[in-house]
Each structure stands twice: as C-alpha cells, then as structure tokens.
Amino acid sequence: MTELLYGIAVAPFKDMAGSPAFFAEVLIGGVFAGLMYSLVALGFVLIFKASGVFNFAQGAMVLFAALTLVGLIERGVPVALALVLTTAVMVALAWVIERVVLRPLVNQEHIILFMATIGLTFFLEGFGEMVWGANVKKLDIGIPDRSFIVAGIQINQLELSAAVTSAVLVAVLAVFFQRTRIGRALRAVADDHEAALSIGIPLKTIWMIVWSVAGIVAIVAGIMWGAKSGVQFSLSLIALKSLPVLILGGFTSVPGAIVGGLIIGVGEKLGEVYWGPLVGGAIENWFAYVLALAFLLFRPQGLFGEKIIERV
Amino acid sequence: MTGPDARPLLEVAGVSVRFGALVALNQVSLGICHGEILAIIGPNGAGKTTLLNAISGFYHPYEGRIVFDGKDRTHLKPPDVAALGIARTFQNVALFKGMSVLDNLMTGRLLKMKGSFLLEALYWGPARRQELEHRAFVERIIDFLEIQAIRKTAAGRLPYGLQKRVELGRALAAEPELLLLDEPMAGMNVEEKEDMCRFILDVNGEFGTTIALIEHDMGVVMDISDRVAVLDYGRKIADGAPEQVRKDPAVRDAYLGVSHD
C-alpha cells in the first residue's frame, strides 16, 4: 500500500527533479503534441461557433486537404503552387457545402445538421480515395524530421515548426474573430438564425467564410500530421482525439481549444512517462478521454465555453 | 406625434401567401404611410404575422407586389430587406441569448459598419473610431430605453418584458425607416405595457420612424395607433382610423362571430 502511494505521489516527482533536462523534453513533447490537437480542435470550434453545428467531417476535411496536397505534389506540382491550389480546393469545398448541405437545412434542428456532417465525412473519405488513391503517402514539405539540442534538451525541428505554425494561426484567428465585425456576426448567427437574418447578416456569406477558414485550418493540420505520420486514412480519426480537447476548452472558445490541447498534450505525455510504469503503460491512450469525462461531470461548458443558459 | 403623411412608405398590393393548400394571406393590399403608427389586428390565425414575414422577406408572396420607397422588393431576402431600412421584432423574442445586451444592440449596428477587416483586427485608426462611434450610438439607445442597469447581462437571463425591450433596442440600433413589431406587448403586465407604449410613441415622435405593429390589446391599439388595419382569414376586412374601425360591424363579427338567427 505504502509502496503504491509512494509510486503515485512521490516517485514521479523525484524522477522529474532528478533529471530536469529529460523532464523538459517530455514537457516540450507534450506541448507540441497538444498544439497539434488544438489545430484540429480549432476547425471544430470555428464551425460550432458560427452555426452551432458539431462538424463531424472536420477530420475528413483534414484528410482530404492532406490527400489533395500530396496528390498534387506527387504529380509534379511545385510545393508553393500545390498549397495555393489546395487552398482553392478547400474554399470551393466550403462553397459547395454551403450550397448543397447547409442552405437546404437552414433553421433545422442541430442534430439534423450533425447527421448531414456525418454524411459529409463518408463522402469526403470516399471521394478522396477515388481521386487520389488509398495508399499511405509520404508528405515532404521540406522541413527535415531532425532534432537539434538546445541547453541539453533535444528538440525536433518538424515538431517545432508545427508548434510555431499552430501558435501563429491561432493568434491570427483569435484576433480576427474577436475584434472584427465578422466575429460579432458569427456569434449572432450561432445564436439565432432568424434574428441574424432580420438584422441584415447574410447567413450564406458567414457560413461560406467560416467553412473556408475551417478548410484552411484543415490544410495546416493535414500538413503537420501528414508530415509526422504519413498521409493515410487513419488521419480522419484524429478528429476523435480532438474531442476531449473541445470538451475541456469549451466548444465555442478559440483560446479554449489551445489551452485544452496543451493540457491534454502535456498531461498525457507526463502521465505516460512518469506514471505509466505503475499501470503497465498506455496512459497516453485513455488519459484525454478520462479527463474529458471528469469535465463533463463537473464543468460541462468547458474551461472557456459560454455558460449554458436555459430558462424554463 | 408627427402625424402621418399621405405618401405611402411601403405598399403591399394584392399579396397572397400560400402554404400548400392553406391560403394564409389572400390578396391583401395595404399602404403604410410615412411617419404613421399602423396597428394590424385580427383574430388568431388571421395572417398578421404572415404579412409581417412577407414584408421582411421571410416569406415570398406567390402573387402581388411589395413596394418600399418606390422600389419593388417583393422577392428580396431578409438581409437585403434589413439593408433597405426595415427592422423588425419577433413574436417569440429572437434575441442572441448568449450575448450581452450591449452586444445584442451592437449586432443591430452591423449593417452600418464599414471598413477593412485588417484595421478592425488591429483595432486601429478608423476602425477604432468606428467602433467607438457605434458604441456611443448604442449607448443613446440604452439610455432611451432605460436599460442602463442590464447592459452587461446576458440577454437570455432577462425577464420576458425586458427581453422584448432589448429586442426593440436592437431593431432601433439599425436606424430603420420602417419598424415592424410583432406583438411587442404580449405577455407583459400593465406597467411594462405602459412603458412599451411610451417607447413606441417616442420612437415615432422623436425619430419620425414609421411603425407597423401587431397587437391584441385593444386598449393599447386604440391609444397609440394612427390607423388600424384588420385581417381575418387572410383577408383585409377593415382599414381606417381607430374609432372608425371600432364601430365597423365586419370587425365585430370577426372577433365575436356572426349570429345566424
């Protein structure tokens, strides 16, 4: 018994203190992983904020963006041009989604829109496979998967660039949605479609913008994840990993997606390394979900989510 | 009160709206004159809200025309109607419940805002000035409607009467030429009704805003409107000064039923 308590409450911290450089490495690894989750979660938050829809297809959009990019590069298109083209494809996709999926479903129940995005997931996966093939592809965007050492701490170059990119993207989006009138229009649309229309907010334009931005976020996430683990169909499953991030951060908060991602990234890495041996490892696989469950019980709106108000 | 002027600001000409086999509006013609307060009354299901929805672009008539300020706008969509200067409130209060009262009113200013997103994002130069100007305008509305104390409260937490008031504020924030109010006093107590009447009269008097409202409280209707139009089963059965409409036998029949003996 004492041994177990010692293993939980004392030994891990002794280990941390014993080798600070290693601890820093684990911590940094956690931060990087967390930012990658945040990147995917961000796509969800954007669409949820604007339309109150949980976009199940966000993972498929990441996959689709990565497939398109890799496919173009494989066919000899220069990387820069391929990026531009992929962006164009994602914006076009947003336009199509607005026309074909969202517009006919204006003012429907959220659950119906949610179902529609499940349909969209299958469509995107199938369509991506049809156009680009089902093989695992290597995505090389010219950033080497090498490490360098700063003050005795090993840092992976690819992970570092992923982290920096996410941070910049997040900052830009947060400012865009909090400071511009689009941000206010966005929240209005999320709250009440009819009222938003009546004060002159064009629903179509707002949705189109938001889905385009979510598509661009999907490209960035696709590049980062694709460069790390190859472009393959399991990429669309990282959507599941970002669910706990959303529950932690709150579905409506851009900063929440970041903080949630960081907590989960750091938490699962530390848990795995320091507490993992106690339970035979694999903490990384369930840590996020258990944490999310706890949040659902005690703070369902998440850390930064808007308070759920319901009058009866 | 400025009193009505003879030119129609909005003209509804022979408008019909159908939902499948149900004819909700049957060739209704109605003019709303510059600067007047027009009350639209009628029993439940008479088509009053349908008429308002047709004017604000939520429904499109399958026949007839709607002309605003001399321009045909029968088939415009709601945001475009709003851009023309027609604001409205809803029967079941459609506020942005998660947003503060202030933000609700600021969304009402969206159509008036212009400029570059980049500057807005940086909150710099003209964008900052613009935000402050709109904020000042909204503060005037807040003072006018006497809702200073609830400025920062989430709209969804307010009691019903105040929500209706905030909704009126959001419509006013757009500086409309024509204001459509769908049962602005439904579910209010006497005191709240009196306040609301005062606000409606003041809006009309001070800003010269033309107002069309749907209301069930006959006392209120007789007190504040310049003109009353009566709908029944999707048709207009009377239209005129309040006193005149009150005496109209067709109106009595519509409300009380026709005796068959």
Account of the protein in words:
The complex is a heterodimer of chains A (312) and B (261). Chain A has 312 residues and is an all-alpha fold. In chain A, 75% of the residues lie in helices and 3% in strands. A two-stranded antiparallel ribbon of chain A has the order 1-2. In chain A, strand 1 and strand 2 form a beta hairpin. Chain A starts with a helix and ends in a 14-residue tail after the last helix. The relative contact order of chain A is 0.18. By secondary structure, chain B is an alpha/beta fold. In chain B, the strands form two sheets. Chain B has a six-stranded mixed beta sheet with strand order 6-7-8-3-9-10, with helices on both faces. Chain B has a four-stranded antiparallel beta sheet with strand order 2-1-4-5, with helices on one face. In chain B, helix 3 packs parallel to helix 6. Chain B is globular. Chains A and B meet through helix 7, helix 8 and helix 9 of A and helix 2, helix 3 and helix 4 of B.
Describe the SSE topology.
The complex is a heterodimer of chains A (about 300) and B (about 260).
Chain A: H1 2-9, H2 11-18, H3 20-51, H4 58-74, H5 79-102, H6 110-132, E1 147-150, E2 153-156, H7 157-179, H8 181-191, H9 193-198, H10 203-229, H11 238-249, H12 254-279, H13 283-298
Antiparallel strand pairs in A: 1-2
Helix pairs in contact in A: 3-7, 3-8, 3-10, 3-11, 3-12, 4-5, 4-6, 4-10, 5-10, 7-8, 7-10, 11-12, 11-13, 12-13
Chain B: E1 8-19, E2 22-33, E3 37-41, H1 48-55, E4 63-68, E5 71-72, H2 78-84, E6 86-88, H3 101-108, H4 117-122, H5 126-144, H6 160-173, E7 178-182, H7 190-207, E8 210-214, H8 218-224, E9 227-232, E10 235-240, H9 242-247, H10 249-256
Parallel strand pairs in B: 3-8, 3-9, 6-7, 7-8
Antiparallel strand pairs in B: 1-2, 1-4, 4-5, 9-10
